[in-house]
Amino acid sequence: MRIGIVGAGSIGLLFAAYLHRVFEVTLYTRTEAQADWINKHGVQLKKGIGPLTAQVNAVPLDKGIGEAELTIIAVKQYQLESILEGLPQGGNYLFLQNGMGHLNALAHLSAENIYVGSVEHGALRENPTTVSHNGAGITRVAVYRGSSELLENFARNVPDFFPIQIAGDYYKMLANKLAANAVINPLTAILGVNNGELVNNKYFEKALEGLFDEVAQILSFTDRTNALTKVKGICRNTAENRSSMLKDLDAGRPTEVDAILGFLVDEAYRKKLKTPMISTYYHLIKGRELASRREMR
């Protein structure tokens, strides 16, 4: 099976490194320099020992996205609009964005099959060719529109140590991941700590529980105890990982706060719910982004 991966950040590199073992992988990069480095040196995967080298074909995005049996979109949600414009019509696509704000855009995409996914691995891109697998987890996927046949074939053939699990309800799957993102990302970003500290520090854990209560209310979770246990489990499984929002703020990059907390702020307004903690963290993250832009001027 020919697999395309759009985006060579931490998740794109991680998927390329594991999937190349069983699939023919083409990795699409933002810059020509990164593509050249990957073609020359491969993707370096660090997990305990290593690095292990994955030889994949890399192509800069400005050369266009070619056809594949399945194309995995592994860019940030705020980068998605320009990517959607360049996708071949009628293809098969798996979207791995955080949050749920991208669902409206996918509704208008011309494609044979559209799948969405939720990645529970901890990964850090150390340089343009190297990714560190800091926390082993699972990737959950579901059909957004179309047939499940291709997705099932893909999940059956991935390496056993990089599992893909198919969920029956895409909305429930994404809502569960959104709950984790909406709690872990802003808390770690503002506190400046790794994921594990949210459950290892009893005071941070109380803040996590309070923020989760507001998220669960908006998403209408019926079993909040189980959902909260899963969020804490992700913190433990990715204990050494720095969240994407924390890394983005430290690097002066835009975050996905609008796709994560912004979506929840809008949902709370629509449902006439009061969510002061979500609103506070949303504005704190937006304030940090603004401060970073001012510093860069």
Per CATH, the superfamily of the largest domain is NAD(P)-binding Rossmann-like Domain
Radius of gyration: 19 Å
> What is the overall pLDDT average?
94
- List the domain count as a whole number: 2
Order of helices and strands: EHEHEEEEHEHEEEEHEHHHHHHH
Broad shape: globular
What structural class should be given to the helix and strand makeup? alpha/beta
- Helical content stands at 40-55%
Q: Low-confidence parts, pLDDT < 50 over ≥5 residues?
A: none
Number of helical runs?
12
Largest sheet: 8 strands, mixed
Ends apart, CA distance between termini:
46 Å
CATH architect. name of the largest domain? 3-Layer(aba) Sandwich
Overall CATH class of the largest domain: Alpha Beta
According to CATH, the fold-level topology of the largest domain is: Rossmann fold
Number of strands: 12
Give the oligomeric state of the chains in this entry, treating copies of one chain as homo and distinct chains as hetero: single chain
Strand order of the largest sheet: 5-2-1-6-7-8-11-12
Topology (elements, then pairings):
Blueprint: E1 2-6, H1 10-19, E2 24-29, H2 32-41, E3 43-47, E4 49-54, E5 57-60, E6 70-73, H3 80-85, E7 91-95, H4 103-106, E8 111-119, E9 122-127, E10 130-135, E11 139-145, H5 149-157, E12 164-166, H6 170-191, H7 197-200, H8 202-218, H9 224-237, H10 244-250, H11 257-270, H12 276-296
Parallel strand pairs: 1-2, 1-6, 2-5, 3-10, 6-7, 7-8, 11-12
Antiparallel strand pairs: 3-4, 8-11, 9-10
Helix pairs in contact: 6-8, 6-9, 6-10, 6-11, 6-12, 11-12
